[in-house]
Structure formats: structure tokens, C-alpha cells
Fold each of these.
Amino acid sequence: MTDARASYAPSASAPDTLSAVGFMVRVRPHWRDTLRADQALGLSSGVLLHAGPPLRSRTDICRPLLNAACAALLFEGQADDADQARAMIACGEVELRPAQDFNVATPLAAVVSASMWLHEIVDVEGEGRPTYAPVNEGPGPAMRFGLLNREVVKRLHFVHGWLGPQLAEALSEPVDLLSFGAAGLARGDELHARVGIGSGLLLRHLDVSGEAVKFLGANPQWFLNLWMATCLCVMSAARVYGKGDVLIAAGGNGQEFGIQLARAPGRWLSAPATPPIGPAAPGVPADIARLPAIGDSAVIDAIGFGAQALAVAPTHAANFPAERVATLIHTADALLVAEHPLLGRRIGVDAARVPAGGTPSVCLAALDTAGERGLIGFGIAPHPAVLYVGERAP
């Protein structure tokens, strides 16, 4: 991991950046399979995958992420109780590693363990790498909200013991995911905070029934995880190209926010994260401390959707002050590189074009710092400005 304060300044490699985004535009992501992480990644029982850049220390982890890691160990049967799980993490018996380094995008505080089921996204044009995201847990007692209790572990058993295999069986052929993203954009979803159009259309496309339909139908966000992996697949083409200043990774771990650039694949630039600013959930006191940005769903915004697409999402934009929305739209216009022929939007955030006083931002759910309440609202969090200034990277 690299400290961004001493490592990055915008380069003048505009032609390489244009070429990198050109590869991204040609990617055609399809949902090919849903399978276990140990099968898809060769993930061992001694590794858990978390969102964002590497952690500074295994003994200094934000509480929601630590809760999620403990829930995963309880789900896997590797720990008998939370105290044992925490001890396993603290002593290094279980290692926490960035999910995006494994071509996986995991939401909020959620971790990925060996027995969890992942959606596999492939590029049928061959430009991008296969990418993955865990099956969405739905609303309520979910690990991604950073909670640790019996109901969270029970939900993990339902999602990864029953629902994952059901979704795998429902796939008779690969599903073109860009078409569902395009439908969402056309009908007012910015494809991060709001993905309900894609969720509904995709559910009607699948051959599922009974309990699966009931669960997915009550979860308007279930398309989100698939779209995270889709965006990661698109960006992976620029990662393979290996040149230019386009973003190819972005995410927060609840303490730091990190990015990667096409010209330095695998090299995280990170800095302290800030919490998302926005409305509180009903009944949540305004003074509850919000966790700094967490989650790999930031890849959605880092490719050009979410906070970079508020211009096409007036319903979500109305949750924020008009002046702030106008600034975000202006910043997005300055950052995005090339028109996508199927999505009707420009994609590719060029780090060399970040304007003075503005950075890319992320539409995010807000979690409580203490890991006791879970989801407490939503908002928008900017990338740390220090990621885009400093000494030129070698």
C-alpha cells in the first residue's frame, strides 16, 4: 500500500487514458454463473476479503468490518463465538485482504469467505477479466451493515446455503447486464443508491419461483451487487492495458479510502476517508456518529455512475441541496472521458482531469461507527482530495 500524499500527481498521459477507456467501452459484461468463493477464486478458509484498500493493522479495524468478519467466521463454523472470532483475527490466524485484489467487489462492511456464493461476470468480447460479487443479503439483519448477532448469521446461511444455488440453477444462459443498467439509467436510476429498475427487470428475466421470488422481490437492491461486478469487469480492461490515469479500483474500508490507476494496477493509493453526508434513516438521531466511507460499491461511481450520474436521477438528487448537486454534475462533466454506445453516458474517470476544489464522489449508505445500529441513513462522500495531488509517482 502506498501513501498518496507522496506518490501521485496528475500525469500528462492523455492518449494512454483515452486508449484505456477505449478498451473499457468495448467490454460486454455477462452474468455467467453463481458459485462458491472457494471454487471461483480458490479462496482458503484462512482468508476473508474486505472492501477498500489494505488495512493498516489487523488489530485496528473499524467495528462494523470487525463485526462482519466475526459473523463470517461463525457462519463458516470456524469460531464458536464472537470472542473466539475476534481473537483469531487479532492473532493473524485469519487474514483480511482487499477483495478488489481478487477481482471481487463486496458491499459496505461485508466480507467474503470461502463458502459464500459469488456472481461471476465475464466479458464476452474478451477485453476484461472475470469479476465477482457476493449474492445480496437483502434488507434487515445483513452482514454488510456491520452488525453481529444471531439473525445476521442465520441470514448468511439462507443466502449462501440456499439462495446462491437457486440463482445458479436459474441461469440457463449468460445474461447481458448492460441492458439492465441502460434501462435503469433511462428511467431515473443512477445505478448505485437506486437500482430498483434493474432489480425488477432482472427478476422477471430469471426462471425462479417460490421463496426465491419472494425474497428477491422484497429487495429492490439485489441488482446492485451484480452491477458492482459489472463495473469492475469494465474497468478490468483498462487494468489489463496498464497505462493511463483512468480509475480501475475504488473503495473504503471504514478508515481509509483508496483508488488504483490503470498505469499502476495493484498499487493502492489511500488516505483517511470521510463519512457520507446526507439524510438520516427514519427514527435515527442526527447526532449518531457515521462511519467513514466503506464498501467496494464505490467502483460504480468510479466508472461514471452513482454520484457521477445525478444528472439523470432527479429523484435521488432531490435528497441533497441543489447547489451541491450542481457541483457534482459539473465535476462529473469534467472527469468522464468517453461515451458508452449502449449506456448513453460517458464513462471512465480520468484522475488527471480532477478539477481544483473537487473530486469524484460516491453515493453511499451510512453505517454507525459503533457497529450497533447498522444502516442509519445515506449520503454522498467525496474521494479524499489528497489522492489527486502530491509528488509524481515513479
Amino acid sequence: MNPTERRALAGLASLYVFRMLGLFMVLPVLSLYGADYQGSTPALLGLALGAYGLSQALLQIPLGVLSDRWGRKPVIFLGLAVFALGSVVAALTDSVYGLIAGRILQGAGAIAAATMALAADLTRDENRGKAMAVIGASIGVAFVLAVVLGPLLAGFGGLSAIFWLTAVLALFGMLLVWRLVPTPQDFQRRAPQKGDFARLLSQGEVWRLVCGVFFLHLLLTMLFVPLPVLLVERLHMASDAHWKLYGPLMLGAFILMLPLMRMAEKRQQVPAAMRLALLGLVFGGVALMTPVHGGWMVACLGLFFLAFNLLEALLPAQLTRIAPAECRGAATGLYATLQFLGAFVGGSLGGVVYGQGGAGAVATLALGVLVLWALAWWQMRGARVTVVGS
């Protein structure tokens, strides 16, 4: 990579870390500390956990298309400002409904599509896969930091401390984009060609990737509804000490993920690596919700984190390889839409099911989701999808 590409990638990967850190930090603590909010129930806390995904899902494609017309940076600045406002709303409330409202407003700052498209604009074709893998891996870094910092901050100042830090990080992200990330010099403000996007949507491989990220984030948010409680019950860990488990596990999983990702890219075995990661989610995620204790529970959690990080890095890299440059913002918008829709569905379903049937019911649901994902992955292999109007 040349200096401009390295500078752009460093800035955008850091932006992803700051923004996703704020969203992820609530995962390991919301079901514990959210119980103190007025009107709190397991179902409403699950909704609050995934609520940001609903507004993200609704706005990713529109803002991605808008970034194709107006430019990436204006859309990113707007999204970060809205995200900061939602964080302030969530920090000031003492009601579960105010918490849900703040999370929805956080999600309305839907800049994932514009950010990925800007990274693609600022890198050459031969380096684009590497750039997308780094950005995908930055989400894994954010998750590592979040599961460590979330319990620490919540133990110090409750959920409000997390949301205040999130607002500050959003403002810092705006400064980062302004000062560090270059503006593409040859950017043309025109809408994507309708025929190109329709052809993109007709590819089964595209739908495999976007459905993959949907199921990945559905499982993540669904499993984190009961997981903090299970760590207290089964491992007898105080809620403010969970970072001592999450931190080493996530760091180890991230370190192991990097050579697996490089090997898959170098040997052109990305599909095989994604299938391997899917198996890791099957064994790790479902086993977590069964009555495992001690070392077995820790091992299952580590396997789940490793599989999550690997898929989080590989999926967007594959998508940007097959997306036409003129509709890259729309393509990454579709990807981000399914990503955050999965978070919304997972949090909402997890809260309802856990409230009705406990961790065992969540395990059964997770297994059903994984089977459905595997079937969809197989059926879409090499398929062509008929797109109305193409």
C-alpha cells in the first residue's frame, strides 16, 4: 500500500473501532444493569439491546446511495452527529423506553455503508481486499475492547457512563475523519447505474454474504441476552469482573484469527474458511447455552469469539471484490442493512425467548438459526436471483 492508502485505512479502521466500541460496550452489561431502569422487563431489555439495529437497517441503503451522490464524508459527519445525540439521550434517561429511544437514535447515524465505500474509493483494486479485511478485523478489535471496557465502565458509573463515553468517541471520530482521512480526488457525484446494481443483486454469492452477516449479528446479540447472567450463575463471577474473562478470550481469539485470515486470502480458500467459522459458531454458540460449567464454558466462549472475528473480517472483503465501483455505496449499504437488522432481530427475539423459557430456550432458537443459515448458505451457492426490473 502507498502512504495515502495506509493513511486512509488507519483513519477509517480507527473510526470503525471508536463507533462500534460504543455500540458493543452495552452487550455484556445491559441485561444486568438495565434491570434497574423504570419499566424494565427481559423483553424490553432485549429490544433495547437490538434497537439500534432497526434504525441502522432502515437507513444504511438510503445513506449509502446518498454517499454515492453527495460524497462519503458529508454523510459520515451527519451520521456521527446523530449517533452522538442518541448517546446523550440514552445517558440521560432512567426509563427503559428512553433507553430504547436513545438506542434507536444511535442507530440512525448509519454510516457503515459510506465508510466501507470510502475505504474502497481510497484503495487500489489490488489492495481493496486487504483493506476490507483490515476494516472487518477492526470490528473484532472493537469487540475485544468493548467486552473489557463495558463491565468496567458500568461498574464505575452504570450504563450512563458507557453512553457518555460513546458520545465523546463519536465527536472524536468526526475530528479523525476531518484531519486524517483523505478526500477522493476523482469522486463523481452521480447515482449508481440501475442495471449494475440489479446485476449485483442477481448474484447468489452476494446474498450468501449479506445473509451471512445477518445471521452472524443475530446470533451475537441473541446470545448476549442471557450470557452475562449465565456467567454470574455458572462461573460465580461478579458482573464488574466479567472483563477478566472476556479480555483474554477475545485477545486470544483475535490473535488466532489473523493467521487464519491471511492463510485463507493467500491460498484463495476464503469460502472454506467461512464454512469452518460457521462450524465454530455451531459448536461454540449452542454449547454456551447448554448446562456447561467451568473450563468447558470458557472454551465454548473462546471458540464462538474466534469464529465471529473470522467471519467479521472475511465477509465484507468478499463483498467489495464483486461490487461494481459505481454502486459500491449501495452494495455496502445492503450489507450493513442486513448486518444491523440481524442485531435488531437477535436482541428482540433473545429477550422474548429468554424471558419465557430461559437459556435453554435461547439455545434451541440459536440451533434453529444456525441450521437455517447453513441451508441458506448451501442453497445460494452459485445461484442466480431474478431481480424485478433487471
Amino acid sequence: MVKELQRAIYHQQHVQIIYLGSDGRTTQRTLRPLEIMGGRLKAYCLTRRAPRVFAIGNILAIQPVVIRHAV
């Protein structure tokens, strides 16, 4: 999980995550990861349009967002 996040930070890629919130509900978010601080991920959440901090242990799944450009 951390390696995928580090790769996304290095390449400035957006990722899509499934996250387990403190209330026990899962949400799907699209993020621009910025920094890993201990067990937390600082990111800009494109879903909420605001900076957020996520507990890495609560990220259930992650995948890169592929942006296709028209030819």
C-alpha cells in the first residue's frame, strides 16, 4: 500500500481509494497524494475538493487513475 502511494506521489498521479472511515462506513475517493507522514497520508481529495489526511491503515484498496486523452 505504502509503495503504491509513494509511487503516486513521485509521479504526481491521482489514485482512487476505498477508505474505511472512523464511523465504520466505506467511501470511494479520488485523491492527489501529497505526503506520507508516519502512518498517515496527506492528500488533496478531488471528491471533497479539499485537503484531507487519511490513516493509511484504513485504506482498503488503491488503484491509479488513468487519464486518457483524445487523439
